[in-house]
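Hi, here's the filled form for the chain we discussed.

Project: internal
Contact: R.S.
Residues: 220
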Amino acid sequence: MKKLVYFFHTTPATPEPMKKAFQERYPDAQLVTILDDGILPEVIANDGIPTRAITKRLVEYGGMAQDQGASVFVCMCTTLGVAVREAQKAISMPMITIDGPMLREAVMSGEKIGMLITFPPTEKTSKAACLAFAEDCNKKVEVEVVIVEGAREALNQGSKELHDELIVKKAHEIAGAYDVLVFAQVTMLDAAKRCEDLPVPVLTSVESGIEQLSQYLGGR
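And the returned structure, exactly as it came back:
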């Protein structure tokens, strides 16, 4: 029987590229995608913090995946990192985030972390997620969230090229101030590839986030 994995998304921009990345790495596994585009508006309305109702929904989605025999439930949204930890307390099946390995590597790479985001309401929760991993690793770090103005709007208007250009420009402007840069959103992968000339590591979530699934899929 094929191993089953659930991917959970909060924006329509991520399901297709993440499905492609998953199928390329684990062609013999089965993927179910869930999209709940009502979560981010609720986060915005709550001053950038996931509500208890959101955590409850994550428990419900996780319970559904568990009932279907899934090996793991993976959240693609940086905003929900702490909420996923809370939901995990109610579910025996592993519930993880796509950015977990990236954040763990970031806190092990230096004391001063620059985290680039494109969606301002995620500032508080993105920083909290990184600090949670710092606590896990018993590391003391300073996390500064840098908002790339206009990038999300460009992506929503169909201009991926402008989205990437704005991120690349901002990264080059600030790189010298940090030990490591974190590109928090899944949609930033292409921009990161254009930042290989920077003097500090640039971390993204897709490759390491997909690779972490091997421990749940029998080392495939």
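Let me know if anything looks off before we file it.
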